[in-house]
Each structure stands twice: as C-alpha cells, then as structure tokens.
Amino acid sequence: MADIIQLLPDHVANQIAAGEVVQRPASVVKELMENAIDAGASTVKLIVKDGGKTLIQVIDDGVGMSATDARLSFERHATSKIRKAEDLFNLSTNGFRGEALASIAAIAHVEMQSRTEQDEVATHIRIEGSKVISQEVTVAPKGTSMMVKNLFFNIPARRNFLKSTQVELRHIIDEFHRVALAHPSISFHFYNNGNEIFNLPISNDRQRIVNVFGGKTNEKLVPVKEETQVVSISGFICKPEFAKKSRGEQFFFVNNRFIKSPYLHHAIVAAFDGLIKKDSHPGYFLYLTVDPGAIDINIHPTKTEVKFDDEHTLYAILRSTVKHSLGQFNVIPSLDFDQDQNLETPYDYKNKSVEQPRVVVDSGFNPFKEEYSATRGGATSVKKPATKGWESLYSGMESQGEKNTDFSSISFESDTITGSIFDDSKIGVDAVTTTFQLRRKYIVTTIKSGMVVIDQSRAHQRVLYENFLKNITVKEAVSQQLLFPLSLTFSKADRDIIMEIKENLISIGFDFEAIGEEEIKISGVPLSVPESEVDMILDQLISDYQQDFVVDGFSQTDVLSKTLAKSLAVKTGEVLDRDSQLALVNDLFACKESRLSPFNKSIYVTITEDDIDKKFI
Fold first, then answer.
1. What is the pTM of this model?
2. Which domains can be identified in the chain, with CATH numbers?
C-alpha cells in the first residue's frame, strides 16, 4: 500500500491554527492589543471599520521590532516571550503562544510597520494569505502598527458565519473593556468608522472603571482589599441595589489578565446571598495577584480560563473578603447583640431630669354639655360644638310608620377593583364557562369534552407577544405620557443597544425626550408598562441583546416582543379574579398560535372525560 501520510503545507497548517486563535474580529483585537502591551507601550490606539470585517488596526509606541524580528514574527511558533518549556509555568506576559500573527496573516491582508528606538527607518511588510507580498523600508514613528484588512477573505464559509456588524462591534468593545480595565497605567483610544468611542487617559483602577462605564458608576462601587499569603485581592464590587439582569459588569483579572471562572463567580454570588434578587447578578471588578507558578494559563486556546493549584482556599478567601467589604462600608445592616437599643437615651433628653409620669382624670367631664371647659390638673380648655338643631339633618325623610324602605334602589359607593390584567371591554364573560385558579399558577376551565389546564404566565406571554408584534408592525401603539420624565443612566455599550432598537421601542409606545452620552430621558411609556418597571425592562432587553442575536429585520422585532412579554406577563403566584381568568382564556384562544408560548413551551393541556373515567377503573 502506498504511503498516505504527508506533511501539510505551512499555509494550510496556519489556516487550521487560525480556527483556534481567530474565531471572530474580536479575537484579532485581543491578540494585537496584548502584543502591544507586552511591547511596553504607554499609548495604544485601536481603529475599527465595519465591525472589524473591513479593517482592524492597532498602533502602539512600544519598543518596536528590527527588520529581522518583523519578518520572523509571522512564522509559526515564533515568540519572544518564552525560551524553554519551563517558562510556560512562570508566565508574566499576555501573548506567548507564537501562533497569533501567523494565524491572522493566513486569513487576512496584513500590513506591519515597526521601528525600534535605535533604528532610523522602519520596516514595512505586506502579507496576504501567508504569502509575503513585499518588505520595504519606510519612515514611521517608534513602535508598531498592525493593520488587518478583509478578515477571512480566503475562507468564505467562515466570513459568512460572522454575525451582523453591530454584534461583532459589541464583541470588540467587550475585548477592549477587558484589556483596558486590566491596564489602567496605559492610555487607550478606540475609533469606530472614524468616530471616537473611548479616550481613556492614564489613571488608577477606579478612574479607569468610571471612564469606561460612565460617571454614574462611581457611586455604585465599594472597595475591596485583602492581602494573604495565597492571593492578593483588590478592586471593587457594586452595591446590591445596583444588581442587574445582565452579567455585563463582571470582571476577574488574575495577574493583569482577564479570566472567566464560574467557580470564583459562585463565591461572589454566595457573598451577596440574601442581598439581591434571585434573578439578578452582582457587578464586580476584582484584581487577583497570585504566584505565576501556582496557576496554569495554557489550558484553553483563548487563555481566558486558568487552573489554580488551591481553588478551595481561594474560594473561601474571596467570599469572606467580599462579605467583609459589604459589612465594613455599611452596605448590609449590622447587628450589635451587646447593646440594647431600648436603653439608649435620645440626645435631646440627655440633660433633662427624670419626672414621674402622671395621669389626670376629670371626673366631671360630660361630652353632652353645650360648652365644657376643664382647667383642673393643667388640662387644656376644650370647647364642644353646639349640637342644637340636629333634628334638621333628617328633615324631609318619611317616618318609618308611613312607608317601608326599599333598599333595592339604594346604590353604594365601593372601591374599584385593581387586580384585573385586562380592560373590561375585552372581557367576554360567558355565564356557562367556569374557571378557577389552581395553586396560583394554573387556570382550569371546562370544555365540551372535558377540561383545560392553562399555565397563566405562559398564556399571558403569548397574548402580550402577539400584541407587541402587531403594534410594532402597524405602529399605532398608544403612549402614556409621564408627568416627570425618567432619567436612566447607561454605559456607552448599553446606550448603543438602545439606539439600535430605538425605532421599534417608539413603535410600541416609548417616547424618548433626549439621549445623551450616558443619560437617557424617557417621557412616555406603553400603557401596559408600569413606570416603576421601565428600568428593569430596559435592563432585561439589553441583557437579551448582548447575546448573539441577529438584530436585523424581523429578528430585532421578535427579540423585543419576547423580552417585553416575558417581563410584563403575570407571574406564578399572582392571584387573578374571575373576570381576569375569563379574559385570559378568551384572549389566548383568539391568538394565532395558542398552543405554544413565545419560547416554544406548552401553554395548556387538555384532560378529556375519557381520561378521567380511566382513573376510576
């Protein structure tokens, strides 16, 4: 049999490696910015066009590279970060694998300009699909400029796999946040399609967080500080009242490297136990410093997951540190069991003498006297109004002996029932239909062949979902104007999401008075949206859009309708009166799709008379 095993060409091997290193434009941004930081740069500029699909450029003022190093850096496994295998277990740099530039050059058009401080001229290299097109001498400032154009130009399938421009830009912003927050001693600039998105000067950790997420973030932060032999912890946690539906503001940094650790995240959640709602997530910016030999970084291609030698100890230290910070800064109530609050003397009574309390009783008091004045015992004078002529109040009324009173014609004023979830005009009350609520979760009603058990929350989600879809399509929703506009604060990334879906939000009844850099003023909301829940609904909406949803066309409308329906639908445990139950049943079966909720879950089950008869056999 002929030999069938052969070595792959370098350009093919580089494309295979690119599958691990370069998943999307944000991966290129991460690798290039980490290389700029390792080069000792004090200023890093990131320039992006069309969500990174057309252009990604990173400019730094680091040490630069000579002509030989510049050409060698595009070879596979070429790096200046490590020399031997043992160096992998004592890493202090960001990029060290030596596959990044070779992988990027295999799937894009790359141009590099680099110059060291000692050289008078710079090196300019152009590479397309792992093939060196030219290497020239040029004039450039000290440092390195990496320009990546037309990503995945030679792999159409991978390019078609990319999401929309807005989604890819969002991932790039996330990577930019992770790098910028980890290195506050470096100045960062971010430009998208010619517009400046971020201008972050050199600062400390707190200032960098505020510059990235907005000025209102400063009041949310609670400092965290702990020094132990195992780990050094610093950073900030967000106050419990600012917990969000999304996981956006959650950052772990280990030795100035962003990581993802569900285990350590659980320690933070455990520290916030009882202080935030079940479906809310705390925000934190924590910087951990450990011995480089005590962690393994190279267990994941993107190096965002690390392995600690002693995770259990680190978990306990982190949880207790966060709890201590919450209590130290009076974020949670403190209990002093050694002090009796009842025995404390108010400040105003500190210098007053003790007097025996007295009870004064006026034995001659008669409330039926026309005028009564009591002055004994120091009591104040009381004057009763005259009650003379009280008989005139009943003038014109027939005596009881002349005619019997007919109470059927008397109307009584009563309070309005406010527990209904539907307008009375929509309620189709059927005298024959009988409904009742089971366990505050299900609505049971009868049909000809048996009965139907309906999940009240899913049924209401379906009704609201179709109503919102109709309003967005027809654009005839009614907006309820607010007496005082709501002022809500969002980060720049969250504000961009609101701007993307602004037109659809207006279609369903939202009215925006002004949209600033960080603050959004809302002067009108849909009729079905309570004013107190606007912040929560928009937070949930941003959380959904931070996922990999396609935010173009109908998908954007669908996501918006689903989020609003889920947020506003009645929940399990809410009590519905009979009219609301009937209205929910009638509106459900008037929907185009009454069997499944917007999230493809069954809304009701039918129990026939035969099914019941079988239970008694």
1. 0.72
2. 10-200 (3.30.565.10), 205-328 (3.30.230.10), 435-605 (3.30.1370.100)
